[in-house]
C-alpha cells in the first residue's frame, strides 16, 4: 500500500502528490478546477452535510466527530474500496478545504484507510 497525504486544496499541487482527490461535498471557494489539478472529486466519501454542519470545525467536537464520521465511512464500503484500490497503485493525496490542518475529516479518513 502506498502512502497517504492530507493537504489543503489551497496548497500548490506538487509532482510528489500522487493521485489527487478532493473529498469535500462543496467545491472550495476561489479555486478553479484547472488550478486544483484533481484526478478525482468524491463528494460521497465526505462527511454528511448534517455531520459537517454539526462539527463546524470546532476542536472540542473533533473526537466525537471522528467517531461519527468513522461510522459513516463504515456505510460507504464501495467508496472506501475504491480508495484502497487507488492506494495499491498510487500515493493518495486527500485534499480538503478546511483551514484546520489538525482536526479535519481528511485526517479521519487517512487513519480509517490506514487501519483497513
Structure description:
There is one protein chain. It is built from five helices and four strands. The chain has helices at residues 33-36, 49-55, 62-74, 77-89, 105-114; strands spanning 4-8, 19-22, 40-41, 92-96. The radius of gyration is 13 Å and the shape is globular. Helix 1 links the parallel strand 2 (19-22) and strand 3 (40-41). With 116 residues, the protein is of the alpha/beta class. It starts with a strand and ends with a helix. Strands 1-4-2-3 form a four-stranded parallel sheet. The longest helix is centred in the middle third of the chain and has 13 residues, at 62-74. It has one domain. Helix 3 packs across helix 5 (105-114).
Please name the defining characteristics of this protein.
alpha/beta, 116 residues, 4-stranded parallel β-sheet, 4 strands
Question: How would you summarize this macromolecular structure in one to three sentences?
Answer:
The protein has helices at residues 33-36, 49-55, 62-74, 77-89, 105-114, and strands spanning 4-8, 19-22, 40-41, 92-96. The chain is of the alpha/beta class and 116 residues long. The model has no long low-confidence stretch (mean pLDDT 95).
